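I'll show a sample.
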Amino acid sequence: MKEQYIKQVEKELSLTRKAKKEVVRDLNEVFASALEHGETEQQVIERLGTPKEFAENTAEQLGIDSAAPQKRKGIISSVAALVVAVVAFVIYATTQSGKVPDGAIGQADAMTNIQVEGAFGFDASQIILAVGVIAVTIAIIQIIRTVRKNRR
């Protein structure tokens, strides 16, 4: 029970490896001391609170904003989604700007009797456009989530 609690606390902590090791060492000392004084592991856990509560209290005592890594992840994922969207839209716009009319071959300005079919059977630029739209949607959702979390 103690080991599970400590592992969960370790996962919840947003600290450096060195700081996490110190907290784990201190937790082991707390459990050892409590057991020497007749407390059970369950009683110690109840006194310390849930692993998340303990991690938040520890971060607060150390003067660390435990929400900062989550905010950073939200911002990074928003920027990454926006970059993907921009790249997709640039590729789509580039492919559409020099688009030859349907049925024209070799920039011919009149219809020919030769028919050329692509290997895919569909227009890949539409997929790129869809990827761009999806990326923008994801970016907007991430930005909204990040703004809402920052308001709390």
